[in-house]
Amino acid sequence: MTAAPAFPMFVSVPEATAHLRALLPDPGVDRVPLSGALGRTLAEALAARVSHPSATESALDGIACREADTLTATADQPVPLRVVGESRAGQPFAGTVGEGECVRIYTGAPLPPGTDAICPVEQLTDQGPDHVLLRRPARPGDVRPEGQDFRAGDVVLPEGVPLTPARLALAAALGHAEVTVRRPYRVALLSTGDEVVAPGQPLRPGQVYDSNRVGLGALLRECGCEVLDLGHAPDSVDALHAALDAAGGADLLLTSGGVSMGRYDFMRDLLIERGTVTFWKVRMRPGGPALLGRWAGLPVFGLPGNPVSSLVVFGLIVRPALTGQPLRPVRLRAGTEFRGVPDKTVYARGVLRGAEVHAYRQQSSGVLRSLSDSDVLVIVPEGAEVPAGADVDVLLL
Ligand code: AMP
Ligand code: MG
To answer: GO biological process: what's one of them (predicted)?
Structure first.
């Protein structure tokens, strides 16, 4: 190419994410039972239909009593209390507890009227069926106040969050049996390259197993996407043209390979010459050659073929665009030096050692073990030199 390109080049990672997000269609929503909602994105805010706890209740097994009656209790001079009944989870004590009285109480049972403290069973000695001796004052802190977790009407889960196991449990506790979630994106997945061969086949010299389609397929499923596996296409304009046409029904086509500077990088040529290009190249390493465009209205994200690059670009750009969840770096101490490069953010593979992060010994974008053996990506800003001992932002892998 000699003339200046008609599309942006060398965009930043946040710009690339925003471009991709803008091309994705609105997926619509589904109503699903909680058992089918793991990993889906909540499409409505969830309010509590009840309070939890619904009444002030005991946090342990013991007796419920009046704290004031027990203040002088010691091992040498225990305080006697008369047992007037019991309060069980789901079966509260019906009466009121008076001075010098108590009820046996169990975890999750409501505190009866008149009581304000709990004495754990370990601190009690029974004296016949109707009396207990306390060897320590009862504690008001051993109760769970009404509404401690949430109160009826509180908006507890915001729209847009991914439904993790803890959030599904919370949705159930709020009183919801079903939730409205975003429809999954349908993402078509294609590997390219004459040398790329499906795992399980014999490998001739110069060939390489298709690791990208396995890794990217798993990443897509982790994001809750439906994957349309288009298999693999050789480096031929006709074959790639046919594969692009075949992806028409998807919300997005994700390809790997064929978008960098080589003569046989035909995915790049096809999108530039016969499609539309939104941007080409991102200021990042690994992953620089990524390309976003459209093929007859279908958004196409061209990931570089290098195995580390394709998975890292997915994590930094594609996943945040598909899920709407921003990257969440955390700060750690660098245990080794991390060198940046001019005009590119480096995402270095790092291994945790205690509270420190150490550079993985190999940072080549062809070394897939650098991802599988690492714990984090260390974000090294453009041109930065991070000495050992400095703080760095990292993304958990
Ligand atoms: P490309 O981006 O097509 O120039 O490919 C860059 C490098 O990634 C080459 O060494 C390819 O053999 C390798 N590669 C491309 N596609 C895949 C794939 N699906 N799985 C594993 N390696 C790949
Ligand atoms: Mg290739």
So the answer is: Mo-molybdopterin cofactor biosynthetic process
- Site to probe by mutation for ligand 1, drawn from 194, 195, 203, 208 as the one with most ligand atoms within 8 Å of Cβ, is 208
The per-residue pLDDT for range 237-289, each reduced to its tens digit, is 999 999 999 999 999 999 999 999 999 999 999 999 999 999 999 999 999 99
Average pLDDT of 169-191? 98
Residues with Cβ within 8 Å of 139's Cβ and at least 6 positions away in sequence, in order, are 67, 117, 118, 119
What pTM did the predictor assign?
0.91
pLDDT above 90 for 2: no
**What CA–CA distance (Å, rounded) separates 5 from 86?**
80
Q: Name the closest-CA residue to atom 3, ligand 1.
A: 257
DSSP secondary structure of 22-58: HHSPP--EEEEEGGG-TTPBB-S-EE-SS-BSSS-EE
pLDDT above 90: residue 129: no
Report the pocket of ligand 1 as residue ranges, CB < 6 Å: 191, 193, 195-196, 208, 210-213, 256-258, 260, 262, 304-307
The CA distance from 136 to 326, in Å, is 51
Domains of the chain in start order, with CATH, are: 9-27+184-323 (3.40.980.10), 30-52+149-182 (3.90.105.10), 57-144 (2.170.190.11), 330-396 (2.40.340.10)
Instruction: Say how many Å lie between the CA of residue 287 and the centre of ligand 1.
Output: 12
Q: Which residue has the tokens 């997945």?
A: 189
